[in-house]
Amino acid sequence: MSVAFSETGRAEFERLLTRYPDGKAVILPALHLAQKEFGYVSDEAIVYIAGLVGTSPAEIEGIATFYTMYNRKPVGKYHVQICRNISCSLLGAEHLIEHVSKKLGVRPGETTPDGKFTLAKVECLGSCGTAPVMQVNDEYHENLTVESIDRILDNLP
Amino acid sequence: MEKVLTTHFANERYRRMDTYRQYGGYEALKKAFAMTPEAIIDEVKKANLRGRGGAGFPAGVKWGFLPKDLSRPRVLVINADEGEPGTFKDRVIMTRGPHLLVEGIVISCFALRAHASWIYIRGEFIREARIVDEAIAEAYAAGFLGKNILGSGFDLDVTVHRGAGAYICGEETSLINSLEGKRGWPRLKPPFPASVGAFGLPTIVNNVETIADIPWIVTHGGETFAALGVEKNGGTRLIGVSGAVNRPGVYEFSAGVNLKDIIYNHAGGIKDGKALKAVIPGGSSTPVLRPDEIDVSYDIESMAKIGTMAGSGGVIVIPEGTCMVRALSVLMNFYAHESCGQCTPCREGTGWLKKIVGRIEAGKGREGDVELILDLCDNMMGRTICPLADAAVMPAQSFIWKFREEFDRHIGEQKCPYGNRF
Ligand SMILES: Cc1cc2nc3c(=O)[nH]c(=O)nc-3n(C[C@H](O)[C@H](O)[C@H](O)COP(=O)(O)O)c2cc1C
Ligand code: SF4
Ligand code: FES
Question: With respect to CATH, is domain A78-154 assigned 3.20.20.220?
Answer without folding.
Answer: no
